[in-house]
Amino acid sequence: MVALRPGRARMGQTYTFVGLTADGRSPFLDMRVLGDDEDPALLARDLLGEHLSCTRIEVWDGQVRLLVIGHDPGDLYGAVAE
Predict the structure, then answer these.
(1) What span, in angstroms and rounded, lies between the C-alpha atoms of 67 and 58?
(2) Which helix (H) or strand (E) holds 40?
(3) Bridge partner list, 68
């Protein structure tokens, strides 16, 4: 943990959200910095609802895929080694 001067907030974590269609195309990519109290899985669900052409959203932390969120509420996958 980095020591901070009083009054300075710690920078959040940067995630990349990749929207994918059924045929694997990517109509959008969104990079966001999320605070410690923000859940990237919840944001991925929101993005999936906004982008109706997408069947799933991949959440990346750098070069590591963390999650895949699909339209099925039970469609939540952890990182997959490729």
Answers:
(1) 6
(2) helix 40-50
(3) 58, 77
Report the distance separating Cα 82 and Cα 79, nearest Å.
9
At 12-47, the pLDDT tens digits run: 899 999 999 999 999 999 999 999 889 999 999 999
Burial environment of residue 10 by CB neighbours within 10 A (0 to 12, 13 to 18, 19 or more): exposed
Q: Are 40 and 15 in contact (CB under 8 A)?
A: yes
SS3 content of the chain, % helix, strand, coil (to 5): 15, 35, 50
* SS3 state at 2: coil
Binned at pLDDT 50, 70 and 90, residue 72 comes out as low
pTM strictly above 0.70: yes
Residue with token string 């943990």:
1
CB distance 40 to 59 below 8 Å: yes
